[in-house]
Request: fold
Amino acid sequence: MAKRDIKSMFPEEISSMLSEEMGEPAFRGRQIFKWLHEKGAESFDEMTDIPLKIRENLAGAVKISNARIIEKQASQKDGTVKYLFGLDNDNTIEGVLMEYSFGSAVCVSAQAGCRMGCSFCASAVSGLSYSLLAGEMLSQVYKISKDTGKPVKSVVLMGSGEPLDNYENTLRFIKLINSPHGMNLGQRHITLSTCGLVDKIYMLAEEELQITLAVSLHAPNDEIRNRLMPISRKHKMDELLLACKRYSDRTKRRITFEYALIKGVNDSEKCATELAERLKNMLCHVNLIPVNDVKERNYVKSSTEAINAFARVLELKGVEVTVRRKLGSDINAACGQLRKGYLDK
Ligand code: SAH
Reply:
């Protein structure tokens, strides 16, 4: 049987494992948790104030999950750094560091590959290979923070994979990174992006979290969305927007709708008008993203004029809109592109 991952455990869980399975004092649980999450320990040997016998028992009973840096690409333009990580089971994933005026943000992957099959996304090309443990998601953040020597101020679950398709581990990740005994990252500094798994959005709404929910919409209607995102055939847009409404009603948090503009597909002013109609009564904001051209698909980004015209329509109709600053465009920082290049090699 595979060893449990201690980095994915809450302090109470470490404590009860110590006391119930090893006959050791429970207070060591919090101490070990701090080693893993505050000091970024990667082995039990580093935990010098924990008695050797406990360290040996732990090393026999559990593992410390990790993500090692295989490759790094730094943008010459804007300080974005893309990391290719290797997991203990040989899967590879990507994490991205982005520099903003408020500090560093890290983009985390929840899965190696993805099974959602969005037609514009490089992560979807070869399907899902692995769903990450919470500890493996945390390792991406800790490694990047250690590598840059800077604290991480926000985390976005927008790397490869669908976080809500790895629900339990993702939720654990959020609670662990938010833990006062660990990184203590505020929930409002965490964004989870989903392609729209409706049942899971309802579940998430009941978790009483203050994280930001970002929903990848990319279309103003089912007809266009069906062409881009297979999930749209399962859940109609009306159904998705109702779930979003429920999320914002429960949490009082504004939803972010992501909309990647693809030339001639979803970027007309008619599309913008239709989108504004559908979103007009929602507590939300639209983030327009020029699509990253992915060469195996035939999508080209919209012109700056088309993007601005799209934004203007939304604004005039009272829908809040921002155009995403395009970071890392010179280093293939679009989802899954670095990993895909590595696997192709
Ligand atoms: N599965 C989640 C999170 C991962 S992708 C989701 O679908 O939201 C993070 C964001 O990048 C999503 O909005 C996704 O639709 C978008 N994305 C994927 N490929 C892209 C591309 N080629 N250009 C622009 N955005 C892309």
Q: What stands out?
A: The chain has a mean pLDDT of 93.
